[in-house]
Amino acid sequence: MLAALLGADAAFEAAIAEDPAFAMAHIGRARVHQLNMEGGAARARAATARELAAAASPRERQHIEIMASVIESQAKKAMAMAEQHLTEYPRDAQVLSLLLGAFGLYAFSGRADHDAARLTLCERYAADYGDDWWFLTYLGWSKTEAGDVVAGRAVTERGYALKPENAGAAHAVAHALFEQGDGAEGRAFLSAWLPANDRTSFLQGHLAWHLALIDIEEGDADAALGIYERHIKPAGRPYPPLNIYTDTASLLWRLSLAGKTGLEPYWKDVAAYGDGHFPKAGAHFADVHHALVAAATTSDALQARLAEMETRHADGKLAPGPSAIGLGRGIAAFAAGDYGAAVRILAPLMPELVRIGGSHAQRELWEDTFIVACLRAGEGKQAAELISDRLHRRPSRRDQMWSQQAARQ
Question: Is 299 a residue whose pLDDT tops 90?
Fold first, then answer.
């Protein structure tokens, strides 16, 4: 699980077969069910683990309760319990992992400071892990996402060297290269890693997504679509549904921004996938991507989803707050060709993007949409500061082109 490799489900099943009363194996299996959006099975396994935990150690009982709380969508409770648990048992890596990553409890908490909080947490326990292959990956990634890309890459590469088949480490290296704007090295790294580790990891599709981003950056939308066809589109992918849905929706939207046409059949496939796995508002990161799909398919579903999100916000269940709803409205205006409205809606939301979670690379989609809306509305000056900030952070052929367009308006 920590290396994002396929097969954890079978390994936990084997452990349960060896010892049916092993509570930790049941909660581990429950977590895999949850990642695959098999909610009923996840809750059932968690209930079994709780029953069996009476004979377990205090550490195991707390571990099981934290995992079960995540499975039951009690994120705030799980986060508080995990933070306390780690003060007693800092090397419980599965619990620490819940707080970290682009889809972790911190990232999806709605906090604007989750990048800094994640790094602070990693640094707190660095001495407890030392040169651990998994920990170095997340310490490095956290440094990268917090803006210290040079140090983040160096730490990540130390972890990667200890276990090169670790897909999490390959992912963290890809992010460091992305943040440094090094497309050539990113392409070389991913083009070597992906075939060498074919069908080993549930991050395979997402790493291919990173490779496709490099093609879009370099202006080769056809190559990016080819990667989508071979490695990312929904049919038959053994990856977690949230990864599949967000990767497919975001890549197709980026291709549209890049001027690629003829994407309607791909959008219909993604819409069908989303209807099956995310039929109602709930996971807000899926919801903001649902807006892309619904807008691209000229579906009435977007307004219905936004209404559901409004209800969740009123009930205190929408972690990013109204900014997530605003992003959907901005996307709707953009898709309708009302670029001036898109600019007005999206402009104040750019500083709030961090609240939806995910990584910098994932959130840039909405920045890209805002920039393109400004250019199409003849308001390049509004986008100039954002483009300048991005270019200051890393070189980008595409951002440089947009900067030149903005300067002419």
Answer: no
